Amino acid sequence: MADTLGRKIDYTFSNPVLRETALTHSSTVHSPGANAVSNNAWLEFRGDRVLGLIVADLLFAAYPQEPEGSLAKRHTGLVQQEALVSVAQVIGLAEHLKLSAGETKSGGHKKDKILADALEALIGAIYLD
Predict the structure, then answer these.
(1) d(C-alpha 68, C-alpha 70), whole Å
(2) How many CA atoms lie within 13 A of 106 on its CB side?
């Protein structure tokens, strides 16, 4: 499975621990051997900021004469949960996520918030890698 995700995002991690951490949901914190930094929360935090910066930069380059308010609306549309979920679905991110048994049982692989956060974590992991 690792190879399929790598092919879909066209990226190979030099530090595979970052990839695994990005794909590990915080619900696993109470799983045996887990700890607070063995899940994707901190990578999601970073990835959110990296994504925001990259999208802002691309928008500014594409629309240099557009007022800030218009750029902000475009930016919001591109980084909102719905857009992130769409990308997560295209790359098949759900099948690579590690969730607790309870989260898996409740359909966690299909939850928009989990998918969006995992995509941001993956972006954060790529940034750090």
Answers:
(1) 5
(2) 10
- Does residue 120 have an active-site annotation? yes
User: Catalytic pick from 44, 48, 103, 117?
Assistant: 48
Among candidate residues 44, 103, 117, 120, the one labeled active-site is 120
Ordered per-residue pLDDT tens for the chain, 129 residues: 557 899 999 999 999 999 999 999 988 876 555 555 577 989 999 999 999 999 999 999 999 999 999 999 999 999 999 999 999 999 999 999 999 899 999 999 999 999 999 999 999 999 999
Instruction: Give residue 52's identity as a one-letter amino acid code.
Output: G
- Which structure tokens are listed for 117? 């956060």
48 part of the active site: yes
User: What 8-state DSSP symbol labels residue 24?
Assistant: B
Residues in the chain: 129
